[in-house]
Every structure is written in structure tokens, then in C-alpha cells.
Automatic annotation (TrEMBL):
Keywords: Membrane, Transmembrane, Transmembrane helix. It comes from the Eukaryota. The chain crosses the membrane at residues 265-281. Belongs to the avfA family. This is Averufin oxidase A. Residues 8-220 form the NAD(P)-binding domain.
Amino acid sequence: MVTYALLGATGATGSSILRHLLHESPDSLRVQILVRSKVKLLQAFPDLQTTRSPQVHVTQGTSTDPDALSECLRNASIAFMCVAQNGSPIGTTLCQDSARAIISALQQQQQSEGASYQPCTIVQLRSASMNPALAAQVPVFVHRIVTFCLFANYADIKQACQYYSEAQKQGTLEYILVDPPTLHDANGMQRTGYRLISTEPQATVLSYADLGAAMCEIAHRQSEFHGRAVGVTATGRVHQTWGVLLRHLLEGGSARLREKIAKETVVVGVVCAFLVVLAYLM
């Protein structure tokens, strides 16, 4: 039996993956879900407790809880890493903290299983803005605005990916990075079509429903993509919900601007203090 782990099943990405697996799962699939709130999950998926295909096991806990992670990742060949937070708060470390905890749990499995250990493949959601070939398709000023506003979030993901790369070299895991464009229609369930790409032209928008299907396809074809970044582009019409995205950009940009102003104020203050002391000594 194939086992998939799903971390963060109540968010837009995790929900779209779970919805796809429940309707179009491979034969003999077991899905092990880690969520902070089982009640919230069952509210979104009320039939989950009676589902028999695929088999579903739910663990309640955080993405940094060693015991919960160990239970969720046990025997998993794929782990969808969908733990995230809205916006881009300065200093956020959720993604990298989760990555360290995941690696630690897998290292314990690796030590206990010895030569029989089979590395789990982490399917990590990233962004086309972090993929040089895909980001180059976007006007430079747009790319700069987005990376400025989402700086903290991107820095967190970048560090997490670095941890996965180091763990791969130790044989602890494999990883695949998934790079979609802007994501829309979080509550939509209708897929309109997508295609996996590397450097080909990418549409600027993609629905969450198609992202979920794309990530499941990537998991099914995991051996083709180990250690690589995979882009996703829409092939059909997407219901666009820019309001949510613009709000996140505004919140992230405001926080980033405040941080830069605060740093510059400190520098100016230090320089002024130095000049005062220097003038006094002279």
C-alpha cells in the first residue's frame, strides 16, 4: 500500500490536494493527515471519517511536534508540505522550523530502520517568483514589488529548501519544489486544466483546484522530479480573486517598509550619537 502524508490539510493548498485524492486516488492509498484542528478539518470534509478509499488517518498537532510528525510520516513515500501562513510577517520561521522538525523525524526513522529505510519525498510548495527561469517571464518591476512585499515569506521558504537539500545529500529524504504563479479561487472545486513545465511560458494565474491536481501528479511521477523545481501553468480559464492577493502584498509590503525605516532610523541615531561624542571630545 502506498502512503502519502499531508501536512496542513485545512489551508487552500492542502484542501485542494485532499479533495483530489478523495475523488481520484490511486489504488490502495493511505493518507496520513497532520492538522492543528481535527474539528476544523472534519467541518470542511464531513465524510472523511467514513471514507474507505483511500484510507485516511488524522493526527492532531503542529508541524513542529515530534510525536505528531513521527506518526504522520511513518511509512510515507510522499509528504505534501502545505504548512503556511497568510501574508509575510517579518521574522517568520514557520516553514524552516517545520522543515527541521520533519528532517529530524525522518532521521529517527532512518536510524531505526537501517538499510531497509526508503527516503520519503517532500513535495514543497514554493513560488514561480523563486524560480529564475519562470521569474524572468515577469516584468522586472512587478517581480521586484512582489519579492519586496513577500521578502520574509520567501526567505523562510528558501531556508527550508536549503535544509531539504542538505538532508537529501545524507540520504534522509528526496524533495521536489513546486512553483506555481499567482494562486486564485481558494474555495473553488472546478478544475479547468494545467500543465507541468520547466522553462516554458507560464500563465500568470492558476486555480488552487488545478494546483492540487498538479501536486498529486508530481507525487505520482516523483522519480522524474527528485531534486528539481517543477512549474505549473494553467491551460484553461481561471476565476481570478486578486483582492486576497493584493491584501497579502499590502500587508507584507507595509511590514517590510516599517522594518527598513526602523533599521535606517537606528543607523541615523548611531551616527548622530557618534558625531555628538566626537564634537565633545574635540
